[in-house]
Amino acid sequence: MRERYGVVGLGSMGGNSATTFYIKNYPVMVANTAQSDLDSLDLPEDCKYHILNGYGSSKDRKRVKQLLAENDCENFDLLINEIKERFRDCKVIFLIASSGGGSGSGMLPALCQRLINETDKIICVVTCTPDDNASLKEFMNCYEFFRELESIDGRGATFVIDNNKNRNKFTLNEQFACYLDAFLNCETNSTLGVVDRAEIESVLAQKGMCIINKYNSETATTQTVIEKIRENIYAPIEADGVVANIALVHSNNKVRLKEVVENIGQPLATYEGHELDATVLAISGLSLPYTKLEEIKQKIDDNKDVIKRNLTATSERRLTGSIDFLDGITSEKPKTDKKKSTRDMLFI
Length: 348
Ligand SMILES: Nc1nc2c(ncn2[C@@H]2O[C@H](COP(=O)(O)OP(=O)(O)OP(=O)(O)O)[C@@H](O)[C@H]2O)c(=O)[nH]1
Ligand SMILES: [Mg+2]
What we know:
- The chain is α/β, with parallel strands linked by helices.
- 41% of the residues lie in helices and 18% in strands.
- The protein is built from twelve helices and ten strands.
- The two termini are 38 Å apart.
- About 3% of the residues have low confidence.
- It binds guanosine-5'-triphosphate (GTP) and magnesium ion.
């Protein structure tokens, strides 16, 4: 089963998270511009991919894009081919990177776009938003990251871990891996009903934000399940009632799907399974965390003068013009032009 699900970790956060999936026996590859970051990971060398001529991006998303664009996108092509080759038997690829860093954040949307164009796999994204103590640069990176991601058509589920939810980032990685692994393994053979492989994958194929929680069978009740929809490791979900799929797999008879649905909003589809050793709830097709991103935008706006001064000092002026993008964000974007040039896909 696990061979169906490939994990690509980009940058430091991606590398750390991918390691937790490696331990759970998923096929894993990690890529980074910094060899030292790769060296720090407890993974076999053949899982590690160093981007040629890279030595870190120091929180500069543009730097990794330029590196991928050099020589007619040579590095970009090499990296994409490596991913396609390694995960050729996978049905779903999870791309993991922080939104606030340079390397992972700069690469992920571009790789997502190309994998959608060039494969028929479901491409899911796992990212994290910076905690409140992060630097302005991280908030700007985060905003740009979501702007690019949002414009990509045909992508699968996006998981957004909120780094404010735990001071220990490794705990967040482990919790997420535990929840996703539980969902990927939630196909039972109960006569009461199952969530089958096709249903699991249609939850993952859904564009928009996705959350997965796991509850042990002793404590899972309608109330605890509902509480954890909002108090968990993820960015806060929007209060707009937008939702596409709800999958609930029971381990006891104490959770009522109807009440869970009433709490979130009416989805297009619900799936219900039984007799798992833990209760698992997956919700996909949620809105991206626009309220959270709006707060981040506010933080950037409040510091505009500082940012402008710093950008002028380094004669880098692009970002001041491109930060207004969240306005009117709810409207559906036109279909991505599949004939875009490879370089365009780097969002340069
Ligand atoms: N949840 C989680 N967040 C992490 C982890 N490692 C780093 N972060 C967060 O990610 C952001 C920094 O991004 P990194 O992933 O370190 O950056 P990178 O992709 O390696 O890019 P550069 O080092 O800037 O080239 C910060 O907000 C960190 O708090 C991790 O293992 N888990
Ligand atoms: Mg790094």
